[in-house]
Structure formats: C-alpha cells, structure tokens
Amino acid sequence: MRILVTGGAGYIGSHTVRHLLANGHEVTVFDNLEYGHRQAVPAEALVVGNLRDIDHLDQLLVVNRIEAVIHFAALASVGESVTNPAKYYTNNLIYSLQLLDRCRRNGIQKFVFSSSCATYGEPTQVPIPEDAPQNPVNPYGHTKLAFERALADYAAAHPFGFCTLRYFNAAGAAADGSIGEDHTPETHLVPLAFRAAQGKIPHVTVFGTDYPTPDGTCVRDYVHVDDLATAHALALDKIAPGSKLAYNVGLGRGYSVREVIAAVEAVTGLKVPVKEGPRRAGDPPVLVASADKIRHELGWSAKYDSLRAILDTAWRWHQSHPNGFGE
Ligand SMILES: NC(=O)c1ccc[n+]([C@@H]2O[C@H](COP(=O)([O-])OP(=O)(O)OC[C@H]3O[C@@H](n4cnc5c(N)ncnc54)[C@H](O)[C@@H]3O)[C@@H](O)[C@H]2O)c1
C-alpha cells in the first residue's frame, strides 16, 4: 500500500515506518521535526512540513497516490495541554480535521489514528475495555476523543473506514538499539529512569506515593513500541469501507512506578536516584488495558510480553545513544 505517515519521525511513528517498509509498503513520512528526528527515518521517505499547511499535505495525497493514512502527528504533553489548551486544540484537533477532510475529498479509504488511554479519564473499571465510558480529564484527552468522534461521523457518511488505536504506555526501542525514545522535554517514566541511572539527570521524580495501589504509586500498562507498530499494520489490513474500529493496545498487565524503577535498576545494574513528589492532577491510580479485543479481532499479540523484555531493548538504545539522536 502507499501510506502517508504523519508524525512518522517521532517515537512511535519511526518504529512503525520501519515495520511498514520492511513489509513492502511505500511510505511517505510527513513531519515538521519539531519533536521528531531526521535520523529516525530513511531520508528518501521524509517530507518535512507542518500539518498546518493543508495544501502541502493535499498535494502529497495526490502526487504520491496515497491509499492509507496513519496519523501520529500530535502534541502529547498532558501538562502543557492544561496550561496551553489552544495549542493542543489547534494542532491536535483543527489540523487533524483538515487532514481528515482532505482524505475524504481525495478518496482515501483507510485511516489509522493514534488515540490514547487518556480518553478514558478516571476509569470506572480495570482492566479497561474499549466500550468503557470515555471522560477525559485534560485537554490532551479531549482533543483525542473529539477526533475519534469526527472519524466515526465521517465513516457513517462517506465510503471511508478507520481504526483508532488507544495506546497505553509506549516503551522500549528497536531490537538493534538503532532507534528509540528521545523526547525533548522528556516526560515519560522509562526514559527518565534510564537517564537518571546514567547520571544524565539528577533523579527521577515519583509523583504521588499515597495512591490506593499496592505500593502507593501509579500503575500503568507498558507496551513495546514495535508491538504498537505491528498493531498498525494489522489495523490497515482489517479496515474496509465503513469500518469504525477501536482497539486498546497494551499488555493487559500493570506495573507501578516503583516496580518500573526497580526493573530499570535490575536491567542496568545501576542505582536510579529517586525524589518523591506530590500527585499530579489528573493522574488516575491505575490504567491497565483490556487487550482481548485486539487479540481476538486482529490476531495481535505482543512479542515483548514482559516489562523486562521491553526494558532490555530500551537499555540497548540508551547505552548506544546516551544523548539520544543528538549523538
Ligand atoms: N508515547 C506514548 O506513550 C503515547 C501514548 C498514547 C498516545 N500517544 C500518541 O501517539 C502519537 C505519537 O506519539 P509519540 O510518543 O511518538 O510522540 P512524538 O512527539 O515522538 O511524535 C509525534 C510527531 O508528530 C510531529 N508533529 C507534531 N505536530 C506536528 C505538525 N503540526 N506538523 C507536522 N508534524 C507534527 C512531531 O514532530 C513528532 O515527530 C501521538 O499522537 C500521541 O498523542 C502516545
């Protein structure tokens, strides 16, 4: 298939691009490189541009005869979305709606969207099934849910199908350590714990130690970035005109912040300096996916089915790239 991947130079996008190319697809990566990395994707696949420039995107859809779009491009810092909602509504919602409409006009029939467990807000049941209530508790989650709704309305009205993938916590790196997670600023626990172990940052902060969980810290479901990549390829195969698909992507198992830090110490043999801080607003105690639906309907399974296996690959990346893509 000829596939446009927005945000394809970012963390999850670049691993997915690699998987799609290895499986014989023709891939056009569209990224403004604000948070993505030129080195993370093959130069010949990369088009540098901003989602804002809808005519540029439109031209790519036509000239490259795009058949499917995977839409990763978004701003993804929950905290920033609270302090600067306009930035998030503009980038994540308005630009996405423009892209969706150009897809419709150009007859694109398959669309895969990067959504998030953040759309569930404070879950009423755990593990969380796809049909659980979606009540996001921050602007980032609101933008993701609003675009999910727009997709459903488009698929009802037009010969168009989509699949929303609600990722839980992406982690890990390519098995050969050649690409991995490098966000600036970094807000994710796993890379921060590795950087603290390597002495690149003074400590990792544990936000909240009094949650109603076994060790008092938040519990999250970590899924390997290459397993996310395979979920996208399976989703593309499954989408047909009129498809309105939504899947959680997680392992269905949770690890606490303290367990992740202990696992990073075990993998590296290094101490992770920790500072305890207050809870962050809008951080639910436990977010764990029910991953039954994607397993049954798409035949997806995780190659990396333990935290240890995920962290081993991340450690390879952090050792070989102590300054991320900057080195
Ligand atoms: N990392 C996670 O654990 C996680 C969890 C749930 C959902 N998600 C979603 O998955 C997607 C990818 O996440 P990621 O961790 O790879 O983030 P990332 O920041 O590494 O990748 C996003 C990419 O989009 C690009 N981008 C953003 N706005 C753009 C614009 N206006 N024009 C062109 N390019 C633009 C950035 O430069 C970046 O390369 C995002 O939509 C995010 O909301 C991520």
Radius of gyration: 19 Å
Bound molecules: nicotinamide-adenine-dinucleotide
Strand order of the largest sheet: 3-2-1-4-5-6-11
Beta-strand portion reads 15-25%
Whole-number tally of structural domains: 2
Run of helices and strands: EHEEHEHHEHEEHEEEHEEHEEHH
Q: What profile does the largest beta sheet have?
A: 7 strands, parallel
> Could you give the count of β-strands?
14
- Spatial shape: globular
The CATH class of the largest domain is Alpha Beta
The helix content is: 25-40%
- Mind telling me which CATH architecture of the largest domain this is? 3-Layer(aba) Sandwich
Provide a descriptive summary of the structure in words:
The chain is an alpha/beta fold and about 325 residues long. The protein has 2 domains: about 1-170 and about 220-250, Rossmann fold (3-Layer(aba) Sandwich); about 175-220 and about 250-325, UDP-galactose 4-epimerase, domain 1. It has helices spanning about 10-20, 55-65, 80-85, 85-105, 140-155, 190-195, 225-240, 255-270, 290-300, 305-320; strands at about 1-5, 25-30, 45-50, 70, 110-115, 160-165, 170, 205, 220, 220-225, 245-250, 255, 275, 285. Helix 6 (about 190-195) crosses helix 8 and helix 8 (about 255-270) crosses helix 10 (about 305-320). The chain is globular. The mean pLDDT is about 95. The structure holds nicotinamide-adenine-dinucleotide. Nicotinamide-adenine-dinucleotide binds near residues 34, 75, 116 and 167. The site of nicotinamide-adenine-dinucleotide (NAD) has 28 residues, from helix 1, helix 4, strand 5 and strand 7.
